[in-house]
């Protein structure tokens, strides 16, 4: 590829974007057949050794984020709730010691029903976690079984109850278009979720990823596209009726409960990812870089000691940036201010002029000159909209 690294037309990024910290805890009790995340079934959890590696990783990354404040922290996985509250406390103590974590930072931990009990939630809260994200997926025992989940519907309800008791803000993850699911069953899951008054709810369309059991060896019988689209529209209508705003493709929140961490991703902010296989996107004065850590947990732990744990570093080119920015920003139903494009990419918006004109002509983007905002049509045909910004 002859394309050069971005040389910003205005001599550099004038403002550094907000910075988030992502911490990957890669273990699960059992790998789900639809999951293509970097997660590994745990026989035993090398908790202490892995935390040593995480903190060393963070220490080695400090020159890349020197002097910058961390706005949000997100523990993703895997199933982070498999870690002990003491372990999470040790990680967060390290983060506070090594970095400038802003007071009142949003600190999210992903948890699965079946791996949490009341004492653990209280401990996570004490360690400084401010928000949990619960992977419920469904409250229907038949669908949970079809998804290969380790929890049953009783545990799903219990976990949602615990989250509501221990945290002021929390997210429930649901999936729809599940094997053999009817519209009525999808709505029943939603209504059950709403009884817990979640401040935030994510509703994901189950997709078959190529490198998973569901994607190749055992594809389940899924609802057709029309039924899946009906589910999506019905879910959206029901949640808006319940006072939740549909602020991002798959995310709904009550006012002031949108995920600050995810908003930073969608607004093309920066994030440092530590842990096995974690991804980072970091802006420097003259370039924007994506990094990936070594994927396999044991190899990662060994590599951090040698300072050889960054498996891949890739500067974004001038041709990459419009698509990279739009792929995030146009997931937001309100879009973003047009000025944010230049602020976050260092490029003038004019580089996208032809694509913007096509998008507006096709009715996928609002004609608003000061805001980049998808139309309802654009939200529903997001891939078609984004394809217009792909490098030629």
Write the layout of secondary structure elements.
Layout (H helix, E strand, L loop, with lengths): L18 E7 L1 E2 L11 E2 L5 H15 L7 E9 L7 H14 L1 E12 L6 H10 L3 E7 L3 H6 L6 H14 L2 E8 L6 H12 L5 E6 L19 H17 L3 E4 L2 E3 L6 H7 L3 E5 L4 E5 L4 E6 L3 H9 L4 E6 L5 H9 L6 E2 L1 H7 L7 H9 L9 E2 L3 H5 L1 H6 L5
Helix pairs in contact: 1-2, 1-9, 2-3, 6-7
Summarize this entry quickly.
The protein has 392 residues and is an alpha/beta fold. The chain has 14 helices and 16 strands.
Structural description of this entry:
- This protein has 392 residues and is an alpha/beta fold.
- It folds into two domains: 19-265, TIM Barrel; 334-387, no CATH class.
- It is built from 14 helices and 16 strands.
- The protein has helices spanning 47-61, 85-98, 118-127, 141-146, 153-166, 183-194, 225-241, 260-266, 297-305, 321-329, 339-345, 353-361, 376-380, 382-387; strands at 19-25, 27-28, 40-41, 69-77, 100-111, 131-137, 169-176, 200-205, 245-248, 251-253, 270-274, 279-283, 288-293, 310-315, 336-337, 371-372.
- The strands form four sheets. The protein has a nine-stranded mixed sheet with strand order 9-10-8-7-6-5-4-1-11, sandwiched between helices. A three-stranded antiparallel sheet has the order 12-13-14.
- Helix 1 runs parallel beside helix 2 and helix 2 (85-98) packs parallel to helix 3.
- The two termini are 12 Å apart.
- Mean pLDDT is 91; it is low at 1-11.
